[in-house]
Each structure stands twice: as structure tokens, then as C-alpha cells.
Amino acid sequence: MLGKLGRWLRILGYDTLIANPRVDDTTILRICRQDSRILLTRDRELSRYGLYINSENLVDQLSELMKKFSLVLKEPRCPLCNSELVKKEHPLGFEETSFCPLCGKYFWKGSHWKHILEIFEGASESQNL
Questions:
Q1: What's the pTM value of the predicted model, to 2 decimals?
Q2: CA–CA separation, 48 vs 43, rounded Å?
Q3: Per the structure, how many domains does the chain have?
Q4: Which is more confident, 116 or 38?
Q5: pLDDT for 129
Q6: Rounded-to-integer distance, Cα 85 and Cα 79, Å
Q7: Rounded distance between C-alpha atoms, residue 80 and residue 82, angstroms
Q8: Is 70 exceeded by the pLDDT of residue 25?
């Protein structure tokens, strides 16, 4: 239900687990307690144990989190598997690439990075209103 937000939190540099919809609530809560994680949810019942995210809109969701936790931009993590990325030259010579040692994917701050920054800044501005 918050998979897109979870991937964005990873891109912004936050260690983020995204629950598989087939995993039961008890397991999710156990993992949160065990790993000292904050549960973000749109499930009213589960929100008793975490933070309910009101909006369905990504920018508004990020804004909610910025109000609550003062998010800042960090070194990106792998949006697919959450691993820390390492600087590594791409075999085709792309500049400023990062590599995920777990899933074997390369990432770089291409033209899409400007869009990511615009969304992050838009969320920052809307949380100040």
C-alpha cells in the first residue's frame, strides 16, 4: 500500500523495508520491534502500532514524513532491495555510477535525478505551509 513511498525513501537514502502484502500483520509488527523500525501504514488498525499516512499522493506523503521526522537527503540506497550502494564505474563508462552489490544493478543520477529533487523540494515546501 506504500510501496512507492518506500522506494522513494530508499532513493532519498533511508533504510526502508517494504512489506510483502502476503506477510501477516503479526510478522510485520515483530520485524518492526525486532529491528527498531517505524511502521508507516495506511491501514487504520495497524496504525495503532505506527504512523498512519493520510494521503495517497506521494508528495503529500513525503510532506507528512518531513513534518514528523525532518527528512533530509542522504546517499541513495538501492530502490529495489534497500542495500547500500557503492561507487563503481559502469562497464560502458557512464559517469558517477553506483552499484548495488546485492542485486547487481547500476544506478546513476541522470535526468530523472532532477525530477526526484523537484519532488523532494516540493514536499519540503508544502510541509512548511
A1: 0.89
A2: 9
A3: 1
A4: 38
A5: 57
A6: 10
A7: 6
A8: yes
Beta-bridge mates of residue 108: 97
How far is CA 28 from each of CA 6, 17, 21, 93, rounded to the nearest angstrom?
15, 10, 10, 41
Instruction: Give residue 79's region: left, alpha or beta (phi > 0; psi -120 to 50).
Output: alpha
Give CB contacts under 8 A, 24+ apart, made by 100-104. 102/78, 103/78
Give me the phi and psi of 41, to 5 degrees please. Answer: -155, 160
| Block residue for cell numbers 529533487 | 117
Strand, coil or helix: what is 108? Answer: strand
Which residues constitute the domain of residue 75?
A: 3-127
Residue 10 C-alpha cell reads as: 530508499
For residue 127, name the pLDDT band (cuts at 50, 70, 90): low
Nine cell digits for residue 105: 544493478
Instruction: For the chain, give the mean pLDDT.
Output: 91
H or E stretch covering 68: helix 58-69
Q: What is the mean pLDDT of residues 96-120?
A: 90
